[in-house]
Design a protein that fits this description.
The complex is a heterodimer of chains A (351) and B (352). With 351 residues, chain A is an alpha/beta fold. Chain A has 13 helices and five strands. The relative contact order of chain A is 0.10. Classes of the chains: A alpha/beta (351), B alpha+beta (352).
Chain lengths: 351, 352
């Protein structure tokens, strides 16, 4: 897989090529995007580009500009057994990148990040460490990581991947060159768009009594249940478990726990996106109340419903709605009952 | 091989051992991508090929088989039959294609020395390797080959152990590298009292071939630690005013007793040198205290100097001479331990 397989990432490919040609690669990049799995494919392509032994194109200084995907180095990077490339992922049920994965501790796996970074590269010119879901670094691990992020040995490249950059330590973010892959701002998937449409319609058409509120809650809970099922199916489909017949039991258990944790993480990400969509719509209502023109709407397709709702609300009520969603959003990140939080949130909304 | 395979690898194939059937021999290979180990055994090979099998299961199984010879056959679905003494077991393997390939060497230097010599050098230095991650260059032993000599050094910033030996073969070789602690550990386990150890050194990695008689050699491949080793010669005191001869075992026994009274907070033993006498005292407020005297031959000024008992005991345990020499200047400068062998140990004193 080379850069040609990522037509939408042409600007990133250009940046990388320029850095290689001028030999001015930064030591750490923070790649943000909607989902870490596509970022991971991107990071591996990056690693192949730097360590490919038969690159299809070369810069003036002889360095490869793309990975061939065929040579031994590229194949081993794809398989995960290249000695100079390491991919770290969140582990265990809590889905964290723990300090034991970075430096040698009692519970460390045979190979830790420290081993890669502080030994010489053996095959390729570069040592590449990919941190998938970097926001899952524990505080202890993040602090240990900072030290080598500040001053890595030469020819070391860190690729940090995250869908939630705001959850990374500021000190880590500031030490990386940041690149946003994919659209920035609010991106609504088809299912979310459909749900928001139904929600807006019900909210505007229905009366403001209690049963109507619970109907809204019902539609939200139903949508969330469908989301969870979809996420579970996706995680199961991408599982590595099926590939091996005789997996050591502890590794099998670890992968199972990781899969469960991955479902939780992806689900909460999509739930957050849903609430963001709802918040965007409520912001549109508030904007109407403030007298903003209709063409400044974040969600123009639901502008009509927003306009109708705005007619029923006072400016203060519209602003309070935004705070309710904000609070609900925050509460869901803590250890609270999801259903209860959503119920309280929806009952507090004024529509 | 099992120590290299480790307990929990994130890549299933790394928990396996590669079986490579060649003409008349079977080669086994294990790796964790940092250190690789390769051993060969005589075998009757029906068909040349390769597969990988879970290292722990294979070892456990072969150990328990009652026959001298075992037969291993793999089918194209990586299902292996292991037979011996009427027992027949089948193990699921992983394709050999997934197994990391052999490290490639570009330019290289070579040097060979007797295994027993290397084993002794490692034994006398490896305990001083730093286990702290804050200074990665110290997480291994430093080997310097120059002018027909091999110098092996390990330090953690508080003490330093060094051994220097002549090498017979490969005297023209000139190389410096830091061998990671994991490889040092493996090497320490594998080195025997006979045969030779040959180094092939490239810019980024090293291959160590252990040969014993006519048998198949064992090979270890290891990455090297990045960075420059600190200038260790700087910390070795040029000259010392006082030199005391001490019985190694006598001192070790005294320190072992003293260590029983040491605690985390008060972890130092005080050496008081007076005319022909050494008084060893230890005092930890919450545990207790101790004092013992050793008759020595000493004519210099009175010196009080304190050391961490564990740091003093390490070299004493590793050495095998009867007599050691402690050299010092005063109570605050580093002490040096020497013996009638090419060994030197620098230890920083503690404040009393």
């Amino acid at each position: 897989m080379g850069w040609a397989d990522f037509p939408e990432q042409a600007p990133l490919a250009r940046l990388l090529r320029r850095s290689i040609e001028q030999d001015r690669m930064a030591h750490a990049y923070l790649l943000t995007g909607e989902e870490t799995s596509s970022l991971e494919r991107l990071a591996l392509t990056w690693a192949k580009t730097l360590n490919c032994t038969a690159p299809p194109a070369r810069a003036g200084n002889g360095a490869g500009l793309d990975g061939c995907g065929q040579c031994a180095a590229c194949r081993r990077i794809a398989l995960g057994n290249h000695p100079d490339v390491m991919v770290l992922r969140p582990e265990r049920k809590l889905r964290q990148i723990r300090i034991g994965q970075l430096v040698r501790r009692h519970e460390s796996p045979p190979r830790v990040l420290h081993d890669l970074v502080y030994s010489k590269p053996t095959e390729g010119p570069w040592k590449i460490a990919v941190l998938v879901a970097a926001e899952r670094l524990t505080r202890e691990a993040a602090n240990a990581f900072l030290k080598s992020l500040e001053e890595p040995p030469p020819r070391t490249l860190y690729l940090l991947l995250t869908a939630q950059p705001e959850q990374l330590l500021e000190t880590i973010r500031s030490r990386c060159l940041r690149w946003t892959c994919g659209a920035s701002g609010l991106v609504l998937h088809e299912a979310e768009r459909a749900w928001l449409g139904r929600f807006a319609e019900q909210a505007v058409a229905g009366s403001v009594d209690l049963p109507a509120r619970y109907r809204l809650l019902g539609s939200l809970v139903e949508h969330l249940a469908q989301t969870r099922e979809a996420v579970e199916a996706e995680v199961a489909a991408s599982s590595r478990m099926e590939q091996y017949e005789d997996l050591p039991p502890d590794l099998a258990e670890q992968w199972e726990n990781e899969a469960k944790a991955a479902v939780e993480a992806e689900y909460s990400l999509r739930r957050a996106r849903l609430l963001q969509a709802l918040q965007a719509w409520l912001r549109d209502i508030w904007a109407f109340k403030l007298g903003q023109p209709a063409d400044t709407c974040t969600l123009p397709e639901f502008a009509l419903a927003a306009h109708a709702a705005a007619g029923r609300l006072s400016q203060l009520e519209a602003a309070a709605n935004l705070q309710v969603v904000e609070r609900t959003h925050r509460m869901l990140f803590t250890n609270v009952n999801e259903l209860l939080t959503l119920e309280v949130g929806l009952l507090q909304l004024r529509l | 091989m099992q120590t290299i395979v480790g307990t929990r690898s994130t890549l299933p194939v790394l928990a396996n051992v590669l079986l490579l059937a060649e003409e008349k021999r079977l080669e086994l290979r294990a790796t964790d991508l940092e250190v690789s180990l390769e051993v060969g055994v005589d075998a009757q090979v029906g068909k040349v090929g390769a597969t990988t099998l879970p290292a722990r299961r294979l070892f456990g199984l072969v150990k328990e088989l009652e026959s001298q010879e075992i037969e291993i056959a793999a089918n194209d679905k990586e299902l292996c039959t292991v037979q011996g003494g009427g027992a027949q077991y089948k193990l699921h393997g992983i394709s050999a294609e997934e197994f990391p390939t052999h490290p490639k060497f570009k330019e290289e230097q070579q040097v060979t020395l007797p295994q027993v010599k290397l084993r002794e050098m490692i034994r006398k230095t490896e305990y001083a390797i730093s286990r702290e991650e804050s200074r990665p260059t110290l997480n291994g032993i430093f080997l310097c080959i120059q002018g027909g000599k091999l110098v092996v050094v390990a330090t953690d910033g508080r003490r330093l152990a060094m051994v220097e030996e002549e090498i017979e073969e490969g005297g023209a070789c000139k190389a410096e590298f830091i061998l990671p602690a994991k490889c040092v550990g493996e090497l320490g386990r594998l080195l025997g009292s006979e045969g030779t150890a040959g180094f092939r050194i490239s810019e980024t990695q090293v291959e160590i071939t252990l040969t014993q008689g006519e048998g198949h050699p064992t090979r270890i491949y290891s990455k090297l630690i990045e960075g420059n080793y600190p200038n260790f010669r700087q910390v070795i005191p040029k000259e010392s005013k006082e030199r005391v001869s001490l019985g190694r075992e006598e001192l070790l026994a005294a320190l072992r007793r003293a260590e029983q009274v040491a605690s985390d907070k008060a972890n130092s033993v005080k050496f008081s040198f007076t005319k022909n006498n050494l008084a060893i005292t230890i005092n930890s407020p919450e545990v207790g205290e101790g004092r013992e005297s050793i008759a020595i031959n000493y004519k210099g000024p009175d010196i009080d100097i304190a050391f961490n008992p564990a740091y003093l005991m390490d070299p004493l345990k590793a050495l095998d001479t009867g007599e050691i020499f402690l050299e010092m200047n005063d109570g605050l400068s580093p002490g040096v331990i020497k013996c009638n062998a090419p060994f030197l140990y620098v230890i920083m004193p503690m404040r009393t």
